């Protein structure tokens, strides 16, 4: 009877499809001089810890699976404990390419889980509300990603010369998390790996098998840490957020 009344009057907490978050954290950090950028301090906290905290605080993320370099497995495990990541976390060995790494993590996600959100470990400024908004769109469409309008004029170039100018109004910079039906993502990544197809994001793998990707508003603050200059910019954004906090 109590269960019936809770449902009748709407006091029962709504459920959602189970969503795993895969964190791509097995890159070589070549443009950071070979130092693992994910373990570098950002305002005194490792870059990856900021990323994991945001996923931990997102309401629609149920578990976290990190694809990392073998030599970083213990360090990332310690990081999760030090910074109090409360959700279940698995850490698995990544591979030589993004597709191999994300596929390895996707295969370790909860069996029967409905969706997988793939996020770059090097995007530490993503906010939990943005993560949830992309996941909500994926619940309706099976494939979703955040995007922002491109600010610069983009040229196609070859041999040091401009070939053409792209229409900026149609261009979007795609960010992460990118969220997919779990079976769809695994199939798309497996096809990319089997075909030896290089991909720079997971939408590309899904696009290759003919599926549509739906976009929602991203954030210009959701930057990817690639170079030392990006670390400085990220620190400035965090400082401003702290100053604006009520």
Structural key phrases:
246 residues; alpha/beta; Spore Coat Polysaccharide Biosynthesis Protein SpsA, Chain A; 8 helices
* Distance from first to last alpha carbon: 44 Å
What is the H-and-E element order? HEEEHEHEHEHEEEEEHHEH
CATH class of one domain: Alpha Beta
Largest beta sheet, briefly?
Answer: 8 strands, mixed
Description:
Mean pLDDT is 93; it is low at 4-12. This protein has a domain at 17-143 and 175-198 and 215-230: Spore Coat Polysaccharide Biosynthesis Protein SpsA, Chain A (Alpha-Beta Complex), CATH 3.90.550. Helices cover 36% and strands 22% of the residues. The chain is built from eight helices and twelve strands. A hairpin with a 2-residue loop joins strand 8 and strand 9 (161-165). The strands form three sheets. Strands 1, 4, 5, 6, 7, 10, 11 and 12 form an eight-stranded mixed sheet that branches. Helix 6 (182-194) packs across helix 7. It is globular and about 50 Å long. The protein has 246 residues and is of the alpha/beta class.
Write a concise synopsis of the structure shown.
The protein has eight helices and twelve strands. The protein has 246 residues and is of the alpha/beta class.
Topology at a glance:
Elements: H1 2-9, E1 19-25, E2 41-42, E3 45-46, H2 47-57, E4 63-68, H3 73-82, E5 89-93, H4 98-106, E6 115-120, H5 128-141, E7 143-149, E8 155-158, E9 161-165, E10 172-174, E11 178-181, H6 182-194, H7 202-208, E12 214-217, H8 228-244
Parallel strand pairs: 1-4, 1-6, 4-5, 7-12
Antiparallel strand pairs: 2-3, 6-11, 7-10, 7-11, 8-9
């Amino acid at each position: 009877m109590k269960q019936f009344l809770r449902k009748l009057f709407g006091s029962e907490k709504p459920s959602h499809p189970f969503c795993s978050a895969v964190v791509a954290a097995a890159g070589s950090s070549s443009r950071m001089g070979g130092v693992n950028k994910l373990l570098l301090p950002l305002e005194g906290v490792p870059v990856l810890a900021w990323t994991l905290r945001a996923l931990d605080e997102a309401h629609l993320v149920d578990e976290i699976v990190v694809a990392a370099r073998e030599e970083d497995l213990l360090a990332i495990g310690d990081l999760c404990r030090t910074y109090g990541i409360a959700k279940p976390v698995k850490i698995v060995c990544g591979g030589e390419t993004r597709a191999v790494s994300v596929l390895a993590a996707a295969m370790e996600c909860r069996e029967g889980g409905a969706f997988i959100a793939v996020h770059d470990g090097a995007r530490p400024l993503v906010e939990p509300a943005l993560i949830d908004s992309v996941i909500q769109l994926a619940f309706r469409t099976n494939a979703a990603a955040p995007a922002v309008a491109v600010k610069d004029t983009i040229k196609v170039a070859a041999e040091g010369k401009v070939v053409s100018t792209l229409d900026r109004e149609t261009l979007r910079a795609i960010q992460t998390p990118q969220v997919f039906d779990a079976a769809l993502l695994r199939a798309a990544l497996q096809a990319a790996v089997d075909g030896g197809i290089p991909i720079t994001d997971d939408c590309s793998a899904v696009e290759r098998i003919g599926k549509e990707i739906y976009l929602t508003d991203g954030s210009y603050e959701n930057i990817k840490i690639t170079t030392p200059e990006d670390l400085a910019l990220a620190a400035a954004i965090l400082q401003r957020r702290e100053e604006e906090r009520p």
